[in-house]
Amino acid sequence: MQITRRATHFRSFKASLLTFFALFIGVNITDIPFFKAVAPTVSAQSALASTINQLFIPADIPTSGDREIDEIIFRAGEQFGVDPRLLHAVTLQESRYKADAESGAGAQGLMQLMPAAAKRFDCADRKDPKQNVAAGARYLRLLLKRFEGNVTLALAAYNAGEGNVDKYAGVPPFPETQKYVKVIVAGYGKSHHPVVTPEEARIAFNLTPAAE
Predict the structure, then answer these.
(1) 100 and 174 fall within a common domain
(2) Residues 19 and 109 in one domain
């Protein structure tokens, strides 16, 4: 009889140990790397969805051949309400997508900013792609607004200065500027760019996934 009681106590003790072990595993299993990998949290899923959305660039937008530069141009277009396609056309003509490009006149970076323009639009390092493109996009937006969406005049002002466009009441008679405008307008394919808010630009320039 004594033996039976001891066996019963032993089984109870063993069952308690198993229960404790199961609870311990249940509480701590999510800290195990394997389970983190196969059962991502809600925050991880949100981060993944955010990353996918961040990488979205419409197929008809040109590419520089460098994904990082493409994303910088696309985000600058989104942020400042400028069609990324126009930013690509300008960047291609200005620097051939070379972040360290420098002209004989002293312009630098992807969108070839002069020192005065860089200072005007808060670009501390003209050879920093993100800063350079942001400043260039802001400048183009200002010019497009000033010339009521006229791409030709905005480009002429970007190349030769706003004062020269005012002086000649149109594209200045400089061979370089005239060629510059002609090449970019042909590359962009449009002579008018709507002046819209960044939110409106996402729709006007088809910058969001079709599902949105």
Answers:
(1) yes
(2) no
